[in-house]
Amino acid sequence: xxxxxxxxxxxxxxxxxxxxxxxxxxxxxxxxxxxxxxxxxxxxxxxxxxxxxxxxxxxxxxxxxxxxxxxxxxxxxxxxxxxxxxxxxxxxxxxxxxxxxxxxxxxxxxxxxxxxxxxxxxxxxxxxxxxxxxxxxxxxxxxxxxxxxxxxxxxxxxxxxxxxxxxxxxxxxxxxxxxxxxxxxxxxxxxxxxxxxxxxxxxxxxxxxxxxxxxxxxxxxxxxxxxxxxxxxxxxxxxxxxxxxxxxxxxxxxxxxxxxxxxxxxxxxxxxxxxxxxxxxxxxxxxxxxxxxxxxxxxxxxxxxxxxxxxxxxxxxxxxxxxxxxxxxxxxxxxxxxxxxxxxxxxxxxxxxxxxxxxxxxxxxxxxxxxxxxxxxxxxxxxxxxxxxxxxxxxxxxxxxxxxxxxxxxxxxxxxxxxxxxxxxxxxxxxxxxxxxxxxxxxxxxxxxxxxxxxxxxxxxxxxxxxxxxxxxxxxxxxxxxxxxxxxxxxxxxxxxxxxxxxxxxxxxxxxxxxxxxxxxxxxxxxxxxxxxxxxxxxxxxxxxxxxxxxxxxxxxxxxxxxxxxxxxxxxxxxxxxxxxxxxxxxxxxxxxxxxxxxxxxxxxxxxxxxxxxxxxxxxxxxxxxxxxxxxxxxxxxxxxxxxxxxxxxxxxxxxxxxxxxxxxxxxxxxxxxxxxxxxxxxxxxxxxxxxxxxxxxxxxxxxxxxxxxxxxxxxxxxxxxxxxxxxxxx
Length: 731
Prior knowledge:
Shape: elongated
Helix content: 55-70%
C-alpha cells in the first residue's frame, strides 16, 4: 500500500488497469470500512443495490484488501519513536508512584526536578534527531521520511515549553525575559554569522549598508560582545561625537544586569534601576548633539545610535518600530519586551503583553510551528496541543503527558468521548503507531496509560498482533523436519508470543493472555507442533482445548499410522508430569493425554517386538480406565496379532477375559444404536469401508479370542491370575 495525496493504491490491484468498466458491468461496486483505531480501511467488492441479485450455489468468497492513509514510520522515525518511549515510560512510573504517595508529592521539588529532567531529555533528544536527520538528508539527498526542519520544529516547541512551563524549582515567579532571549538566540539566529564575518573584515565597516542594521540587531538580541566589538571599530570614525558616544555606550552594554548574575531578584531590580539611570544620562548626552553633526555623509549615525539607546532604555515604541524595520516577527518583539521594556516581566504576565503584540503583528496561520509558539506564549496549553497534533501527533501526545503531570490541563474526562485532554492526544498518537504492526509493544504501552478506553484498545491490539509463523516442513520427513521443528520452537512465533505474554503480565491482562495462548495453540496445531500447542493450552488453562490437541494427536494415528503417531506423542509426553501436578487441570483431559502416551508406548513396544510388555500395556489401558470408549474397538483390533502369536501365550486367562468383556460391550452397545460412540475411531481408520469393515474386523477379534481360549484350555493356563504388573507412563 502506498499513499499519494488522497488516493490509496491497493497491492495487488483489486481491479486491473483498463478493467474498470468490466468490473462495473459485473454488477459490483467497491465498499470500505474504516478502522475505529486508526486510518486503516478494509476495501472489498460488493453487489450493487441497483442490480438484481443473482442466486448462486454455495457462498462466493470475496477478497478483502487492507490499506492505510498513514505512512508507516521509516527506520529513522522508528528509532525516534522507540527512544522517546523510554522517556515516556519514566514519566509514567513517576505519575504512578504519585498515586500511592499523594498529590502533594507530585508537586514537591523532588518530583518537579524529575519532570524537568525528563522534559529536557525530550528537548535534547529532538535536538540530536534534528542534527542527525539534517545530516543524513543531505547525504541521502532528502530520502528521510521527515525532514530535518520538521524535527527542528519539534525541538523549538519543546524547548519553549520547557522555558515557559518547566523552569527550575522556585523560579516560577522569576522574570522570564533572559530565558526567552536565550531560547530565541538558540533557535532563531539573527543576525547571521556570515554578516558579522563580512563586516569584521572591513577597514571602515560603518560605510557598509549592513553595518548599522547589524549593530541594532545584535543589541536587540542582547549579544553584547558582538555589539561592543563593532562599537570599538567606530574609534576611527571621523565624527568626534560618535566616537565619544560609542566609547560611553560600550561599557553600558557590557554591564547590563541579568537575573542569572544575582542571587536575589531584589538585587537584580536595584542594579537594573541604577543601570537605567546611566542610560538616561547617555540619552541626555546623545540629544545634545546638534542636527548638523548627526550625519557623516554616508549615514545618519545619530538616528541609528538613538535606536540602540532607545532599545536599551526599554522604549516600547522604538522596539516595535525597529523590529518591523528589521523584518522581525512577533516573537522577537515579545522577547525584547521582556528584556528591555519590562525586565521584571513574569510568566503569568507574558500572555497579556503577547496578546497586544499579536493584535498588531499576528502569527502565521499557515505555519504550525508558529501557531504552537503563539499558543504557548499566550498561556493557552489546550490550543498549543491542538496545533501540535496537526504538526506531529508525537509532539501533542508527549506535551499533553507533561502538561497533565504539571496540572496545566484538565484531568476530568469529556462526557462525549470519555477521555480527558491528555488521554485524547496520547491515544491519537497510539493510533498513529498502530498503523505499523511492528510497533505493537510501544503502541500498547501508550494505550494502557489512557484509562479504561485505552486498556480496551490495547487488549484488541494484543489479540491481533501478527504472530508471523514461518512455514517449516512437516515432522514427517525425519531429520530435515526435526530441524525445522527446532527452528520453530526458538523462532518467530514462540518469540512473539513470549513478548505478548510478558506484556500481559506487566499490565495484568490475564484474560487477554489466555486468549492469545489459545490462539497460539490453535496455530501450533495447524503446524502439527503438538508439544507447543499443549503447552500453550495449559498456559491458557484451556482444558477443552487441551483435549482437542490430544484428539488431533490421536487422529494422527488414524491418518499417518503408528510410527508418526509415536513421534508426535514424544513431543507432548514431557507435558504430562507437569499437568498432573497442576491443581487446576481437569482430570478428564489429563486422562486423555495419559491414554495417548500409554498408547504410543504400546506401539513402540510392538514395533520393537517386545510383545509381552506390549500385551501387558494393552490390558492395563483397559484395566486403568484410560481408554476412551471410542477407542475400545481400535485397541481390540490391535490385540488380534498378539492373540494370534504362535510362540507363546502373551495374555493371562483373566486378561483375555477382560478383552472379551470389552468386545461384548462394544458389540452389544452397537446393536443398541450406540455405534457412533464405540466405533467412530475404528471406522475412521478403515476409511471408505465404514461400518461394515469395522464389524468384520471385530468378528476377526472374536474369532482370535475363541482360538486363544481354546489354546489356554489345552495348555491349562486358566485359573489363577498372574500378579498384576504396575504400569507407569514414561514422562
